[in-house]
Structures are given as C-alpha cells and as structure tokens.
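Box 4.2: Ligand-aware structure prediction
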Amino acid sequence: MPTKEGIDLDSIAYFNEKFIPLREASLNLMTHAFQYGTGIFEGIKGYWNPDEKQLYIFRLKEHYERLSRNSRLIRLELNKSVDELCQLTLELMKRNNPSCDMYIRPNVYKSGIIVGPSLINKNGSNPTALSICTLPMGEYVDISKGLHVCVSSWTRVEDNAIPPRGKIQGSYVNTALAKTDALLNGFDDSIVLSRDGHVCEGSAMNIFIVRNGKLITTQVSDNILEGITRDSVIELTKKELNLDVVERQIDRTELYTCDEIFFCGTAAQVSPVTMIDHRPVGNGKVGPISKQLQDIYFDVVKGKNPKYKKWCTPVF
Ligand code: PMP
C-alpha cells in the first residue's frame, strides 16, 4: 500500500548489497551522509510503453557514468562498474515489475558511523555504500501549460564551494530553498543566478532560451549540473531540427527579452516557461521550438523513434 506521496514501502530496494523491502532499508542516525550530506545521487526515469508492455530506461548508462565520475569529487569509493550498476538496476526493476512510468534514485554515500566531516576512509572508518530505490513517477511539473517562474533571490552554489556538477546530496539544500520560496510566492519554479548575476539553471533542471531562432543554453562551467536531458536536447536540436545550439553565459535580462524559454531534466522533461517574474516570455504562449522539442523528446524516451533506441534500455 503506497504512502500518500505514492511511495510503496513494500517495493524492493537495493541496500547494503541486498534486495530488501524499502520499509526495512533504514540508516543509522550517525551515518556520515545523514549528518553531512556526503553522498551523490542520480535521478533516472523509466518510461512505460503500453503497446509493447515494456519499460524503457532513458540513458541508464550515461547516468551511471556521471555518478561514477563524480564520485571522485568527494572521495567515494564505488566498488561497482557502470555495467554492474546498470545490471543491478535492471534486476531491481524486474523484481518490482511495474507497468507505469518509474523514477530510479541511486545514492552513493559515506556510510561511516563517525563524527567529524572528513571524507577520508582511514582503516575502513568511512566506507562507501550504495542504495537504489524505485518509485512510480507522474509529472514533476505541469507540462501541459507553460510555467510561471521567478528569478530566485538565492544564489547558486558554485564550483569552488559545493560543485553543482557533482549532484551532491548536501548541495540540494540550495535547490530546496530556491524551489520552496518560489512555490510559497506563487510561482511554479525558479531560476538561480551565480554570484555575478548570470543565469545558471532552474532549481533542478537545465535551461534553454531561444533568441531569433537560435537556441542558447548555459555553458557547463557556469555552475550547472551537466544534465543528461540537456545533452539529449542539444543532440535532438541539431539532428532533428537542423538548428545550432550555442553554449555560453546567459544574462538575466536575456530571460526577459528572449522569444522562448524551456527547462529540461529527467523529472522536468521538456517544460516550457511562458511567464518570468510577471513578464510574458515572447508572446506568452508555449513557443514553437519548445513544443517541437517536447514532442520529439516524448517519442524518443518512450522508445518510439528507432534512431534513438540506443538511449532506451528495455527492462523486460
Ligand atoms: N540541474 C539540476 C540542479 C538537477 O538536479 C537536475 C536533475 N537531475 C538537472 C539539472 C537535470 O539533469 P538531468 O537531465 O541529468 O536529469
């Protein structure tokens, strides 16, 4: 029986090298990652294709490659290869046997039962653990209409503080502050700026703008997560729409003057923004390029476009 947030505690999770019911997967209060946010996580989505009775996991390998690479940032010692992580996830998904869109949440974290923030694992004192759970996922934001977002008063964490490229647990307090204040102020979401006032990304999604038919997205050195959806959108734009994408710094005021804005991310998918800080984006309607990319994206993730089937890993 799922909780009211839709989490089924009887579903199977991977925890301490075993498949066990989620309700039994509990951490000790003294766990390092619980005290200091010293873990890295991923968010991966599986799309249910009802015609084929198949669940396609989108860019599974690329998510684990990112996790594996970024583990080095905080000295996590991941003892599994990308291939093993993919296989484990497929096994877990098979055990849960869903027939709806699913979200996968792996965490690699410092599991030492110790006090003190050091990441060093001296004589096994601060080892690394892995957990994976899965849950049904509907829409994270309402993509049927455009979003009304604000520029957040919170500044993005930066590379030399808590690197946003890392998807580090503790850095999501920054995301939580930006998202919560946006919601409390009546917006659907927010855009965070760097200390020098340039655009970084949405609270938990990357951002694209359209100016005079040209797509622009923030460059990877502008304190963003190097999004896998961002990478997919860049490729789809070039190959399917024959348009170029420029990766460069974006000014705040370009958000107010551009023709289209959309967010993209595993959970956010392709989400058009039609109002920003009470100003309409372009003509205030979902823009044509955003709409085309949204349609292309949905076909691709559901395994309906043979050209991009390589991005979709079947579970069954
Ligand atoms: N930025 C942030 C801060 C995020 O949390 C996410 C979601 N993972 C994204 C961007 C989008 O990344 P991806 O497309 O890899 O999900």
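In the box above, the bound molecule is 4'-deoxy-4'-aminopyridoxal-5'-phosphate. Residues 43, 175, 201, 204-206, 225, 227-230, 265-266 surround 4'-deoxy-4'-aminopyridoxal-5'-phosphate (CB under 6 Å).
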